[in-house]
Amino acid sequence: MANVTVIGAQWGDEGKGKIVDWLARRADMVVRFQGGHNAGHTLVVEGETYKLSLLPSGIVTGTPSVIGNGVVLDPWALKSEVERIRGQGVKVTPELLMVAETCPLILPIHRDLDALREDASGAGKIGTTRRGIGPAYEDKVGRRAIRLCDLAHLDDLGPMLDRVCAHHDALRAGFGEPPVDRERLLGDLREIADFVLPFARPVWRDLDKANQGGKRILFEGAQGVLLDVDHGTYPFVTSSNTVAGTIASGSGVGPGAAGFVLGITKAYTTRVGSGPFPTEQDNDVGQTLGERGREFGTVTGRRRRCGWFDAVLVRQAVAVGGIAGIALTKLDVLDGLETVKVCTGYRIDGKKFEYLPPHPADQARVEPVYEDIEGWPGSSAGARSWADLPARAIKYVRRIEELIRCPVALVSTSPERDDTILVRDPFAG
Ligand code: GDP
Ligand code: IMO
Ligand code: MG
């Protein structure tokens, strides 16, 4: 099986977009299978910057790109992203972008609800991207979602709209908000249908054909394992499964199609939004990492919280995510630090823990146990081979491999596409 599945091994923003773009040149298809436009990826190709949220990161290389049924699709967000990226000279045609007909839609009422809930939650808020992701997934499993294929049958939409609007009207009333403007929603859907329907397809058939024909499929996960709704730091998570197994339910292939699972892993840790973060450095160290790593969200512009590498969490992500090798990114951000710390274990009330316990109260009390690693003089920035890396930087990479019990397949040393070291070809399995 020559397929590769890319997933985030931390709390998102590990550099998945850069790595998917790099791998996409050798793939026949790139497939998103969960999440939505809560994702935000920055790609830099020969100095030109591309920002993607909903479009698979293969679109820039012109690799046929698929949005699978597991993605929650905001058709208005898709339109503005397509227009923006076309403005940068990237081709987006129905031959290059295929969207599953069964994608549930994110409607303006989902965005409303996301924001209403966050605003009402005070200190307990999740810090969502306010894109309506959670409410749209709720309506999907509640069997009242409007799906992409429904836009081809707008005259039959009445009863479905009644169902979803009745549900939202009750919730909105609780927040003192007026009922959904049903006519306006229908009008908006009519208008956007013309744009989005040409991309709608039974993509499971395209994927089946590609698999039968021995094509190389690159599955692109969004977010990261620690934001997984089952395996992450619940309730401070997103509303989808971000682990590799989700390719099956989220695009319509068998689980065996995942191929080599590549976990994208930052050489330190960041998190955006609320929730536990044992190795967070709310001090000069965090400030330095944030400035050097330019840790501001692609989607919301929020400052990302920064901290040391947490080997306990990545080891857990490797296990539950099914990760076979990692791409270690942003190694260059640690250049020149005198000492680099790595968390190798936890203590809670004096008791040792080798994993993150599930209860938020325990998670909040975790004390990380650190190992000090000597930093490296010199620069890893822009390195494209092992030989270009300072010897002590290599030592750091090797120590991480040991601690997380997973080999490094790629190392990334700058935002630029080709500043990437290939250690082991993920497509070779
Ligand atoms: P994603 O959501 O996982 O695709 O990651 P984001 O794109 O949200 O965030 C990663 C950020 O780090 C982006 O701004 C990238 O351009 C940048 N980046 C990726 N790899 C590297 C690297 O190796 N070094 C540095 N300095 N920046 C990187
Ligand atoms: P990429 O693909 C980082 C976080 C939000 C919030 C939580 C729930 O760029 O790595 P949601 O809007 O999904 O309901 O928010 O999840 N979050 C991300 N954090 N990277 C992402 O995506 C994220 N997508 C969601 O900040 O804490
Ligand atoms: Mg991101």
Describe the fold and architecture.
The protein is an alpha/beta fold and 429 residues long. Helix content is 31%, strand content 19%. The protein contains 12 helices and 18 strands. The strands form 4 sheets. Strands 7-6-5-2-8-1-9-13-17-18 form a 10-stranded mixed beta sheet, sandwiched between helices. Strands 12, 14, 15 and 16 form a 4-stranded mixed beta sheet that branches. Strand 5, helix 2 and strand 6 form a beta-alpha-beta unit. Helix 2 packs parallel to helix 6 and helix 3 crosses helix 4. The longest helix is centred in the middle third of the chain and has 17 residues. It is globular. It starts with a strand and ends in a 7-residue tail after the last strand. Bound molecules: guanosine-5'-diphosphate, 6-O-phosphoryl inosine monophosphate (IMO) and magnesium ion. 6-O-phosphoryl inosine monophosphate binds next to helix 4.
Describe the structure using short key phrases:
18 strands, alpha/beta, binds 6-O-phosphoryl inosine monophosphate, 429 residues, binds magnesium ion, four-stranded mixed sheet, 31% helix, binds guanosine-5'-diphosphate
Q: What does the secondary structure layout of this molecule look like, with pairings?
A:
Layout: E1 4-8, H1 16-24, E2 29-32, E3 41-45, E4 48-52, E5 65-67, H2 75-86, E6 97-100, H3 108-120, H4 133-141, H5 158-174, H6 182-196, E7 200-201, H7 203-212, E8 217-220, H8 246-251, E9 260-266, E10 269-271, H9 284-292, E11 305-307, E12 309-310, H10 311-321, E13 325-329, E14 339-348, E15 351-353, H11 360-365, E16 367-374, H12 391-404, E17 408-412, E18 420-422
Parallel strand pairs: 1-8, 1-9, 2-5, 2-8, 5-6, 6-7, 9-13, 12-14, 13-17
Antiparallel strand pairs: 3-4, 10-11, 14-15, 14-16, 17-18
Helix pairs in contact: 2-6, 3-4
Residues 12-13, 39-41, 298 line the site of magnesium ion.
